[in-house]
């Protein structure tokens, strides 16, 4: 009886070691270590190659996970990297920031069967890193330049994914971003202890090596007119993200010491990039911090606050722990690093003194029958309580923030402001302007990085189709090719 | 006869028949009334081998062929005042009762051939002797008398008669009633649709006092249809056939192709119409072929051996001259292959022959006054034992003939001796044949690898996905075998797919079920051959050296080296016409194919002997036409043009990669194939280190791949029951699903294709899409998704979302959650054929509470057969418990069942009887409400299975009567079912042991399953299950999962229509299974005709199965399909409640649909296909599908039952003797006392002992009466299945002889068979038992003083037996027990034998060549160190002598020490001598 067949039972799930809490909170380095030399391949060998690859199905970009796990198991590093890139232009990034426990690893048969999921995310990350280290780069040798050019607005995950695919199809890709570095939220929103900025820089090198041209510090509509893009390029992809934060409408939001999550996070990254000391506004030394919101951004704020020296960090979430929308892993890391959680609490007001925040008023919540067969959340009367806070960070989420010029060019949006794309009679991700495509958070609203990657990838396919004969584009939409 | 256009799925072309037959002859040529009387009496004793029609009286037909009838005919002529000449012929002619000019036309041709008609007389048919159905279709019958022409000798006279008859038949082709039974001076046939006992009553002629003869051939038919057709009764003009010609479609086409090259100086064959009939009965076509060969100048001994040769190729012991005789003729005639027992009678010979597999019984006996009888059964004549000087049986490939001129009986060896001396065959072959050696190293011929980007372009152009590369190609090269998979196929059939699917996916492989058996290509490899010849076929009538000029390849799959060697041969350097399949897009696919046909024809007419078809050279401006389209079209065109036999089709293609694809190409006419893309892809895989197979170079990879493909090809051939690739080539054994009539007509004429599909435009469009991908270099290879789910690839009906929602629903038990699941399934993109069928209501919707309750619907639900072995005990029992609590039935599957479960809610109410017969004991059989005979399973119809040793744990081993850790093999066929009358026999056997059980027969959907089902109903089944192709857990080769069987919708509809057409529907309950998931599936299945529904995967998923498709690896992570203790204990989460939730949901879902349809009980919907309409499809091909044949009720009448109306299918055989025994023994059994009874027995008394065993098992279990046996002393010739399912406490002592199936399923007790003491022959020289005795026996003892037939002890797992000789395949698949053979054995002893052991006496010193070396060792028994064995053997012989009184046994004992050295001990390689000896000691 082959040992291999039962490895998933005999060998436990073993992700790479993480940096000990005491050390990691002192800095901003990634907390997850690399696999020891052969661990990735042994761990990959736990995959039982299900007839139904639940991991692949749950993965928003539908990575060929069992297939590359096999290659990893066989030690075929470059082939694995190539196959990872076939579905995912940014595997090293998704390997780091995806909530795998809700996606591939959560769906893994071994996870469901109580064996512990295959460490898919860690493998994806470490294999791509290692391939880069050893010099692997996407093979562009067979790409035939088509002569067409596309402008990509926004160098976030959607834009990068789109640019990657355009280049592979022989289409020139010029990427514009108002920031001075590529990555969008990857660089400025996600804290470096989750995603080291060097990773994004490597990716930039890779993309530039593929022929992607970046135009940074350039804002479309300010520095270059959108009309100019339409004139200069055969198509435009808009991937400008979701930066409009959800306002909790809490009384007292104007008080000093109250932050919104994204500016807070960006400010910290900005000064880290420039290797500047902590500015006063971010100095949390000895302060009691309350973070409102239970999503991944809330966790980023929690953990950033810890690193900024907070005396305590309390994370308030209105439902119970099971209902938290973010990754379990991030909740766990937050806890490990000393964050307190308060569940079933709804913040109702921010209370200040001297124009400075002093406390958060919260009320306990409970679930009640909504009379329609479901349940709803209700505040328990008389359960109001004050939570002392020197600093409050609101992390209630984000809304799409498409550029203002969209309207002027007939790029339709829905009522919540999201760009409409791929609707009736359109190619996937094509907006109501036939030359303009969109994807990522400005089309979806705030969502996972990996979904933005998917959008960028697919939008590029649609653009490539558009450039071919129209009738072929229609055929290909109707019938797949085995 | 033009095939009638049918609007339903029923097609008479699918009809089968089978039967009993015989021949009585007086060797010295003395004609007598005794010969005639004996023939008729023998015929009457075969009635149980025939079928009876819906009216209960009309038989399926029987007849006689009477040799040298002249004196009697002269008397008949005289009485009719017809003046016949000294030499004359006569013949019986069927005519249209409404009148016709047929007699005049026949007369005209008789005269044209230089003969004269002496006169005609009309025969009267006695109506009451043949039953109302038969009589209503009775033709008018005239007898014609023809006088010999001037100066004609006998031979010329016979040939003139032949020509006259054939020409008249051609001229009268439109007259469906005109039929000449025989027209000859030497034989005359009479046949009728009558029960065999009544044939003589039908015709007054047959009771005429002048009727005497020296040889009579007789035949009783069992047909799968019931519409009476007098002409189909046998014998035909020369022969009668028991069995089926599997290769018939190929044989017919090749005979057609051969018309252009067959010339005989003796007879003009050019104007006699088709040489063989292209439609109708396979036996009749074979009869036609034999006639032509005889007319052309071959004699019967040669002709028969040429048409139905033995397995000469693998027989190392065969004489070289004889082998050369067969090889020479094989160059000019492919074998007519199939289970065939043939009796025949011509001018000079009467003969009997068996095909190479010997699957039909033929027993002979010879009296001291030179009377011979050969027949399907022993015991048919009434000759006193003291006068019978010899008894025997024909073995596989053997022939027995009476030479009337010499007055001699010719045995097999005598015939061989005549044949091999006919010409210097060996010398001709030595000079003429070129063998292409693959080992000649010629560096210039080595493969040139393509650059990677070019290779990837072609891979995309020809639709090779990464999945296929890794799952199929790589595995073939690594393991030299096909990849294995689990869980069946849940993707749409190609016609429904939204993806570009390989053309081959539209071809479903044929497989043998019921009417013919599949072969085991591994264990019975000796009958198989892939030998392929290249060269023009010669004229078979011209015996010459030049006809031996051929090139032989050991298989039709070429390496590049071989391909180039062929093309470099002098005759082909200039003599090759090349067809380039890449055509300009503007030309269009259809025009291109027509051009290819023209080019091939012109080339061959100009002298090319090779048509080289290639798709190797595509460019951007062209599209490749699919090689299969081209091969099919060119082959058909060249056949039509009479050119096919002059050339070969050599195909260089990218499209052929797996075994099925090669089989398609060969099945539609390709001679040999060079799969260039497969090799190139393998080369790349190998170069990049992806192929793990130890150290190997590139050449080895190609060779390994070819070996894998060859095995796969053999499997595909064998599951159709075909032995040689020559018989498969051009045989078109496929059903097409998803091609438009225009494509079928041009490329695959005559292949069933019943729902239409893609036309040339769609096929071309598919190729255009692939080409677009291919020429886009940036596109990677497609990921695939046909075998496993891949996002964005092919749709899977059990995709992750479906599994997740279903599992969620059964755990919460909430109907709302079920609805989410059902919504996913019911609104999927149309994937199954039924997705295009929409149900309509009978009336207005009704309130839900008026619909019958869930409980009423649950009774109609069964779980599909899944064995313990496939499932874990926990899952198996949870399933049984759930079904029992619900009031449905669970199915044990084929692995036996723990007796501890009997009588509890964990017992399976359906007990399966499958080919492995694991654990099938009388107790197992009586603890069942339904006994299901599994003929085939959806995942791999026509194949056997193998349970690897590591899955055989203590429990499995105990239940299967095997040893832990030793692998177990299920044979492809049931070795007691080789044809339809055998199935009737097994049903009879099962009804005998458990009279209250319903008998179910499980079939798999395929074109023609309707007629098979009709036969099954006539054989006595109460229930029939029609499985779709998609079902199946367990391990199965991927090509079987993907390509065999068809959707159940087609099978169910065809069965429903066929049974209704034949008036049989009311006698049987129909069930379907295959991917049923929701209430809507049940509603549609009901409307198509099913009244009961089987679910396999659904309940498994409910128990936690996540469709991992790793069942075959024993590491199922959900603990459902594994025997691993930890997985079962810690990770299996299934509960009966989950299964119950699932079925209740489905039943409730059914109710909701019923309410909406306005139906109160599900029964109202059964068979209401009129309530289904076809929805518009969602793809171009779907819109071209025509499903109207599935839902049509055309021609079925309104008064015919459309659902089952009988509680059970009434038994035909009164089983008088069994009843008597049961009654006589009742008191003794009840009181548990021993008793002895005496009876006379005849061959019509079948399964004697089975009912008694059932009676005993019911009270005492399998062994409770061991110590107080009921002793049955029988005298005579026992019918089939003597002592079947024999329980401990039944002891049968038969004095006489027995037929097939003695002791099948025996579990205890004893059977003794001895010849009558007055017999003059030596027992060790005579046959005393038939074939397949002790099949599936689990215990008990058998002593027989005489020789047994083929496959003695097949799948024996515990019985002890002593016999005095055996046929081929003795101890096949044996896993336990002991067999001592005190005489010679046939070939292939111990094939697949993994347990038990045997002793064989080898006086002739031939055993070393006879046993199968794969799994067993043979050891000499020396007096030193092997005392245990020596004593054991001596003990066995002594017991044998004591029980049977065998003189031979006494003789052996007398010289035991001296003879000891002549005995072999045969043991499985895996078993050690010491361990066996240990067991002996313990047993002693």
Question: What does this protein structure show overall?
Answer:
The complex is a heterodimer of chains A (482) and B (1484). Chain A has 21 helices and 17 strands. Chain A is an alpha/beta fold and 482 residues long. In chain A, strands 3-2-1-4-16 form a 5-stranded parallel β-sheet, with helices on both faces. In chain A, strands 6-14-7-8-9 form a 5-stranded parallel β-sheet. Chain A is globular, with a radius of gyration of 23 Å. Mean pLDDT of chain B is 93; it is low at 1-5 and 440-445. In chain B, α29 links the parallel β33 (910-913) and β34 (930-934). With 1484 residues, chain B is an alpha/beta fold. Chains A and B meet through α4, α9, α21 and β17 of A and β19, α24, α25 and α37 of B.
Element layout with pairings:
The complex is a heterodimer of chains A (482) and B (1484).
Chain A: H1 7-10, H2 21-24, H3 39-44, H4 54-58, H5 65-73, H6 77-87, H7 91-97, H8 104-107, H9 109-112, H10 120-133, E1 149-153, H11 157-168, E2 172-177, H12 185-188, H13 197-209, E3 213-216, H14 226-232, E4 235-238, E5 244-245, E6 258-260, H15 261-273, E7 288-292, H16 296-307, E8 312-316, H17 328-336, E9 340-342, E10 345-353, E11 356-369, E12 375-379, E13 385-388, E14 391-394, E15 398-399, H18 405-408, E16 436-438, H19 441-444, H20 449-467, H21 470-478, E17 480-481
Parallel strand pairs in A: 1-2, 1-4, 2-3, 4-16, 6-14, 7-8, 7-14, 8-9
Antiparallel strand pairs in A: 5-15, 10-11, 11-12, 11-13
Chain B: E1 17-26, H1 33-44, E2 62-67, H2 70-79, E3 88-95, H3 102-112, E4 116-123, H4 132-136, E5 140-147, H5 154-171, E6 179-184, E7 187-192, H6 199-202, E8 215-223, E9 239-243, H7 248-258, H8 282-296, H9 300-307, H10 320-330, E10 340-345, E11 349-354, E12 363-367, E13 371-375, E14 388-393, E15 399-403, E16 408-410, H11 412-420, H12 425-432, E17 433-435, H13 452-461, H14 466-479, E18 484-486, E19 499-500, E20 507-509, E21 532-534, E22 550-553, H15 560-567, H16 570-573, E23 576-580, E24 582-584, H17 589-605, E25 610-614, E26 622-624, H18 627-640, E27 648-653, H19 659-667, E28 672-675, H20 676-687, H21 698-719, H22 725-728, E29 734-739, H23 741-747, E30 753-758, H24 760-774, H25 800-812, H26 815-826, E31 837-839, H27 854-858, E32 861-863, H28 873-886, E33 910-913, H29 922-926, E34 930-934, E35 945-947, H30 954-959, E36 968-970, H31 980-993, E37 998-1004, H32 1009-1018, E38 1023-1027, E39 1035-1037, H33 1038-1043, H34 1048-1061, E40 1069-1073, H35 1079-1088, E41 1092-1095, H36 1097-1102, H37 1125-1131, H38 1136-1157, E42 1172-1174, ...
Parallel strand pairs in B: 17-22, 23-25, 25-27, 27-28, 29-30, 32-41, 33-34, 34-37, 37-38, 38-40, 40-41, 43-44, 44-45, 45-46, 46-47, 47-48, 48-49, 49-50
Antiparallel strand pairs in B: 1-8, 1-13, 2-7, 2-8, 3-5, 3-6, 4-5, 9-10, 10-11, 11-15, 12-13, 12-14, 15-16, 18-39, 20-29, 21-22, 24-26, 31-42, 35-36, 50-52, 51-52
């Amino acid at each position: 009886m082959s040992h291999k067949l039962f490895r998933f039972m005999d060998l436990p799930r073993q992700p790479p070691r993480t940096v000990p809490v005491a050390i990691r909170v002192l800095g901003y380095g990634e907390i997850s270590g690399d696999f020891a030399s052969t661990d990735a391949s042994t761990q990959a060998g736990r995959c039982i190659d299900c007839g139904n690859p639940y991991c692949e199905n749950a993965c928003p970009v539908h990575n060929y996970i069992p297939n590359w796990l096999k290659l990893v198991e066989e030690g075929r590093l470059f082939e694995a990297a190539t196959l990872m890139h076939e579905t995912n232009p940014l595997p090293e990034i998704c390997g780091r920031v995806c909530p795998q426990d809700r996606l591939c690893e959560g769906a893994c048969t071994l996870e469901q069967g109580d064996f512990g999921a295959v460490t898919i995310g860690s493998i994806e990350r470490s294999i791509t890193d290692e391939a880069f280290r050893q010099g692997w780069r996407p093979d562009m040798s067979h790409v035939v330049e088509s002569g067409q050019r596309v402008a990509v607005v926004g160098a976030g995950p959607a834009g990068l994914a789109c640019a990657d695919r355009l280049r592979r199809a022989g289409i020139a890709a010029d990427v514009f971003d108002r920031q001075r570095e590529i990555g969008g939220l990857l660089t400025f929103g996600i804290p470096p202890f989750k995603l080291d900025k060097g990773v994004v820089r490597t990716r930039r090198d890779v993309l530039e090596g593929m022929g992607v041209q970046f135009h940074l510090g350039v804002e479309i509509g300010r520095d270059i007119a959108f009309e100019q893009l339409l004139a200069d390029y055969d198509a435009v992809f808009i991937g400008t993200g979701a930066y409009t934060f959800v306002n909790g409408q809490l009384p007292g939001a104007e008080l000093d010491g109250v932050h919104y999550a994204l500016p807070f996070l960006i400010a910290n990254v900005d000064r880290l990039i420039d290797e500047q000391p902590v500015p006063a506004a971010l100095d949390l030394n000895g302060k009691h911090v309350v973070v409102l919101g239970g999503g991944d951004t809330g966790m980023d704020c929690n953990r950033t606050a810890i690193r900024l020296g907070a005396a305590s960090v309390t994370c308030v979430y209105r439902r119970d722990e099971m209902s938290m929308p973010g990754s379990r892993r991030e909740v766990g890391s937050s806890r490990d690093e000393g964050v307190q959680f308060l569940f079933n609490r709804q913040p109702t007001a921010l209370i200040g003194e001297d124009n400075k925040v002093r406390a958060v008023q919260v009320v306990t919540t409970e679930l009640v029958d909504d009379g329609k067969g479901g349940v709803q959340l209700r505040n328990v009367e008389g359960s109001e309580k004050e939570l002392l806070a020197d600093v409050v960070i609101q992390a209630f989420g984000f809304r799409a923030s498409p550029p203002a010029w969209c309207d002027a060019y007939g790029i339709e949006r829905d009522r919540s402001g999201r760009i409409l794309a791929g609707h009736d009679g359109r190619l996937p991700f094509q907006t109501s302007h036939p030359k303009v495509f969109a994807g990522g958070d400005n089309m979806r609203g705030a969502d996972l990085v990996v979904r933005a990657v998917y959008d960028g990838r697919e939008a590029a396919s649609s653009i490539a189709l558009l450039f071919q004969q129209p009738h072929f584009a229609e055929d290909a939409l109707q019938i797949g090719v085995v | 006869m033009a095939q009638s256009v049918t609007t339903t799925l029923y097609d008479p072309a699918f009809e089968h028949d089978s039967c009993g037959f015989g021949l009585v002859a007086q060797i010295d040529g003395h004609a007598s009334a005794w010969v005639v009387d004996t023939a008729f009496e023998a015929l009457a004793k075969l009635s149980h081998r025939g079928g009876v029609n819906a009216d209960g009286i009309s038989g399926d037909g029987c007849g006689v062929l009477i040799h040298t009838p002249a004196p009697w005919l002269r008397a008949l002529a005289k009485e009719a005042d017809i003046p016949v000449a000294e030499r004359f012929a006569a013949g019986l002619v069927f005519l249209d009762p409404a009148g016709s000019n047929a007699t005049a036309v026949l007369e005209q041709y008789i005269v044209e051939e230089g003969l004269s008609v002496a006169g005609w007389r009309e025969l009267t048919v006695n109506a009451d002797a043949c039953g109302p159905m038969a009589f209503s279709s009775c033709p008018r019958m005239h007898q014609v008398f023809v006088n010999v022409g001037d100066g004609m000798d006998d031979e010329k006279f016979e040939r003139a008669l032949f020509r006259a008859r054939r020409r008249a038949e051609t001229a009268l082709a439109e007259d469906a009633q005109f039929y000449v039974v025989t027209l000859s001076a030497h034989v005359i046939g009479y046949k009728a649709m009558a029960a065999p006992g009544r044939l003589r009553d039908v015709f007054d002629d047959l009771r005429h006092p002048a009727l005497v003869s020296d040889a009579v051939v007789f035949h009783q038919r069992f047909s799968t249809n019931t519409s009476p057709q007098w002409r189909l009764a046998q014998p035909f003009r020369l022969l009668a056939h028991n069995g089926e010609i599997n290769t018939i479609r190929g044989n017919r086409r090749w005979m057609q192709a051969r018309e252009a090259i067959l010339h005989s100086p003796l007879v003009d064959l050019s104007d006699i119409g088709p040489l063989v009939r292209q439609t109708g009965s396979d036996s009749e076509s074979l009869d036609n072929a034999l006639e032509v060969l005889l007319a052309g100048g071959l004699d019967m001994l040669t002709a028969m051996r040429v048409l139905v040769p033995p397995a000469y190729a693998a027989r190392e012991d065969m004489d070289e001259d004889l082998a050369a005789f067969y090889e020479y003729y094989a160059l000019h005639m492919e074998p007519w292959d199939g289970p065939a027992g043939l009796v025949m009678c011509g001018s000079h010979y009467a003969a009997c022959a068996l095909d190479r597999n010997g699957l039909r019984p033929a027993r002979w006996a010879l009296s001291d006054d030179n009377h011979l009888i050969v027949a399907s059964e022993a015991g048919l004549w009434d000759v006193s034992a003291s006068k019978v000087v010899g008894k025997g049986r024909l073995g596989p490939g053997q022939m027995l003939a009476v030479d009337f001129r010499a007055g001699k009986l010719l045995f097999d060896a005598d015939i061989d001796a005549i044949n091999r001396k006919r010409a210097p065959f060996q010398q001709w072959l030595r000079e003429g044949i070129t063998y292409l050696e693959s080992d000649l190293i010629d560096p210039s011929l080595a493969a040139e690898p393509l650059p990677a980007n070019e290779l990837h372009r072609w891979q995309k152009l020809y639709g090779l996905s990464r999945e296929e590369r890794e799952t199929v190609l790589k595995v073939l090269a690594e393991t030299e075998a096909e990849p294995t998979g689990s869980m069946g196929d849940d993707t749409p059939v190609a016609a429904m797919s939204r993806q570009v699917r390989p053309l081959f996916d539209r071809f479903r492989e044929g497989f043998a079920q019921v009417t013919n058996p599949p072969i085991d290509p591994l264990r019975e490899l000796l009958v198989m051959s892939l030998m392929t010849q290249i060269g023009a076929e010669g004229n078979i009538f011209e015996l010459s050296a030049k006809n031996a000029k051929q090139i032989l390849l050991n298989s039709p799959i070429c390496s590049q080296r071989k391909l180039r060697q062929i093309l470099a041969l002098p005759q082909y350097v200039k003599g090759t016409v090349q067809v380039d399949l890449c055509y300009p897009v503007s030309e269009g696919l259809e025009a291109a194919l027509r051009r290819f046909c023209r080019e091939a024809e012109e080339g061959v007419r100009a002298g090319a002997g090779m048509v080289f078809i290639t798709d190797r050279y595509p460019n951007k401006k062209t599209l490749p036409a699919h090689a299969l389209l081209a091969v099919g079209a060119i082959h058909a065109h060249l056949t039509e043009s009479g050119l096919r036999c002059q050339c070969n089709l050599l195909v260089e293609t990218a499209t052929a990669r797996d075994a099925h694809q090669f089989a398609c190409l060969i099945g539609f006419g390709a001679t040999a194939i060079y799969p260039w893309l497969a090799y190139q892809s393998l080369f790349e895989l190998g170069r990049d280190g992806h192929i793990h197979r130890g150290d190997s170079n590139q050449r080895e990879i190609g060779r390994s791949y070819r070996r894998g493909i060859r095995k796969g090809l053999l499997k595909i051939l064998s599951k159709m029951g075909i032995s040689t690739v020559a018989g498969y080539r051009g045989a078109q054994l496929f059903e097409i699903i998803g091609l438009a009539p225009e494509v079928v007509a041009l490329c695959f004429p005559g292949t069933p294709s019943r729902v239409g599909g893609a036309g040339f435009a769609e096929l071309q469009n598919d190729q255009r899409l692939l080409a677009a991908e291919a020429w886009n270099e940036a596109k990677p290879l497609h990921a695939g998704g046909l075998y496993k789910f891949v996002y964005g690839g092919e749709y899977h009906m059990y995709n992750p979302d479906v599994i997740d929602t279903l599992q969620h629903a059964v755990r919460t038990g909430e109907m709302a959650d079920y609805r989410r699941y059902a919504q996913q399934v019911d609104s999927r993109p149309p994937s199954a054929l039924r997705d295009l069928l929409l149900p309509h209501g009978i009336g207005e919707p009704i309130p839900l509470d008026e619909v019958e309750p869930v409980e009423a619907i649950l009774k109609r639900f069964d779980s599909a057969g899944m064995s313990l072995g496939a499932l874990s005990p926990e899952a198996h029992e949870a399933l049984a418990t759930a079904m029992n609590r619900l009031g449905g039935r669970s199915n044990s599957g084929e692995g036996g069942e723990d007796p501890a479960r009997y009588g509890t809610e964990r017992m399976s109410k359906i007990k399966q009887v499958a080919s492995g017969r694991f654990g099938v004991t009388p107790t197992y059989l009586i603890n069942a409400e339904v006994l299901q005979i599994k003929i085939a399973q959806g995942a791999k119809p026509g194949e056997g299975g193998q349970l690897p040793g590591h899955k055989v744990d203590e429990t499995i081993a105990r239940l299967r009567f095997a040893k832990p850790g030793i692998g177990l093999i299920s044979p492809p066929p049931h070795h007691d079912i080789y044809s339809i009358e055998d199935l009737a026999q097994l049903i009879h056997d099962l009804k005998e042991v458990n009279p209250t059980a319903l008998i179910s027969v499980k079939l798999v959907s395929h074109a023609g399953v309707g007629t098979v089902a009709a036969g099954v109903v006539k054989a006595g089944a109460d229930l029939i299950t029609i499985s779709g192709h998609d079902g199946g857990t367990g391990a199965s080769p991927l090509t079987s999962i993907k390509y065999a069987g068809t959707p159940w919708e087609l099978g169910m509809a065809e069965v429903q229509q066929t049974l209704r057409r034949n008036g049989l529907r009311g006698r049987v309950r129909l069930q379907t299974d295959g991917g049923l998931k929701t209430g809507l599936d049940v509603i549609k299945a009901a409307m198509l005709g099913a009244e009961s529904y089987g679910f396999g995967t659904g309940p498994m998923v409910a128990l936690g199965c996540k469709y991992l498709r790793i069942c075959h690896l024993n590491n199922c992570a959900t603990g459902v399909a594994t025997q691993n203790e930890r997985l079962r204990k810690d990770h299996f989460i299934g509960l009966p409640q989950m299964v119950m939730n699932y079925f209740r949901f489905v039943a409730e879902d059914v109710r909701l649909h019923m309410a909406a349809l306005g139906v109160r009980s599900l029964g109202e919907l059964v068979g209401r296909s009129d309530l289904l309409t076809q929805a518009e499809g969602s793809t171009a091909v779907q819109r071209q599908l025509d499903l109207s044949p599935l839902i049509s009720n055309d021609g079925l009448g309104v008064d015919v039952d459309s659902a089952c109306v009988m509680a059970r299918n009434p038994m035909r055989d009164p089983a008088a003797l069994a009843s008597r025994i049961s009654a006589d023994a009742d008191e003794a059994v009840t009181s548990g006392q021993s008793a002895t009874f005496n009876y006379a027995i005849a061959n019509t008394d079948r399964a004697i002992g089975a009912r008694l065993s059932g009676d005993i098992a019911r009270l005492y279990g399998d062994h409770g009466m061991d110590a107080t046996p009921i002793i049955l002393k029988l005298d005579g010739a026992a019918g089939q299945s003597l002592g079947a399912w024999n329980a401990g406490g039944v002891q049968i002592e038969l004095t006489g002889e027995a037929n097939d199936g003695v002791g099948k399923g025996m579990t205890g007790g004893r059977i003794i068979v001895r010849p009558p003491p007055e017999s003059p022959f030596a027992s060790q020289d005579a046959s005393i038992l038939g074939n397949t005795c002790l099949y599936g026996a689990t215990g008990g003892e058998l002593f027989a003083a005489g020789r047994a037939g083929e496959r003695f002890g097949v799948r024996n797992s515990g019985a002890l037996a002593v016999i005095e000789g055996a046929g081929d395949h003795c101890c096949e698949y044996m896993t336990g027990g002991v067999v001592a053979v005190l005489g010679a054995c046939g070939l292939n002893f111990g094939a697949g034998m993994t347990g038990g052991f045997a002793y064989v006496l080898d006086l002739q010193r031939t055993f070393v060549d006879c046993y199968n070396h794969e799994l067993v060792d043979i050891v000499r028994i020396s007096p030193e160190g092997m005392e245990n064995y020596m004593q054991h053997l001596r003990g066995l012989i002594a017991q044998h002598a004591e029980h049977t009184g065998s003189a031979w046994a006494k003789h052996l004992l007398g010289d035991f020490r001296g003879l000891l050295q002549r005995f072999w001990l045969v043991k499985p390689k895996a078993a050690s001598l010491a361990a066996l000896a240990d067991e002996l000691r313990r047993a002693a």
